[in-house]
Amino acid sequence: MRRDIFQAIADPTRRAIIALIALHSMTPNAIAENFKTSRQSISKHLRILTECELVNQEQRGREIYYSLKIEKMKEIDEWLEQYRKIWEARFNQLDEVLLTVKNKKK
After folding, report:
1. In angstroms, rounded to a whole number, what is the distance separating the alpha carbons of residues 10 and 74?
2. How far is CA 36 from CA 7, 13, 64, 100, 104, in A?
3. Looking at CB atoms within 10 Å, which of 5, 44, 72, 91 has the fewest?
4. Within the chain, what is the greatest distance between any pair of CA atoms?
């Protein structure tokens, strides 16, 4: 099943996993130690993150380490950019209104 990056970040556990592996690569067991859930549940989340191409898997000896493909997060930033521009325009309008009100009080 082909998934997109927004399905990956829709779940709070997956967002927390992304935050963990953004700092350094980790094994599934090391990741699972940070949650009150089973190792199998973490593996399912890692599978979804892998299907979304958000994580790299690297075999080191008997362990698999997961790390974040930070460049993939750019898709989220590009999607948010359109809304960031709208909010910035609205805040600029608000600044102008507040400045007008402030000047009228003088």
Report:
1. 16
2. 22, 10, 21, 53, 57
3. 91
4. 73
Which backbone phi and psi does 52 adopt, to 5 degrees?
-85, 0
CA atoms within 13 A on the CB side of 62: 1
Are 2 and 43 in contact, with CB atoms under 8 Å apart? Answer: no
Which pLDDT score, from 0 to 100, does residue 105 have? 84
Residue 90 has pLDDT above 80, yes or no: yes
Q: Residues 38, 32: contact at Cβ < 8 Å?
A: yes
Two tokens, residue 62: 């008997």
**If you count them, how many residues does the chain have?**
106
Helix/strand number for the chain, H first, E second: 5, 2
pTM: 0.78
Is the pLDDT at 1 greater than 70? The verdict is no
Per-residue pLDDT tens digits for 13-65 = 999 999 999 989 999 999 999 999 999 999 999 999 999 999 999 999 999 99
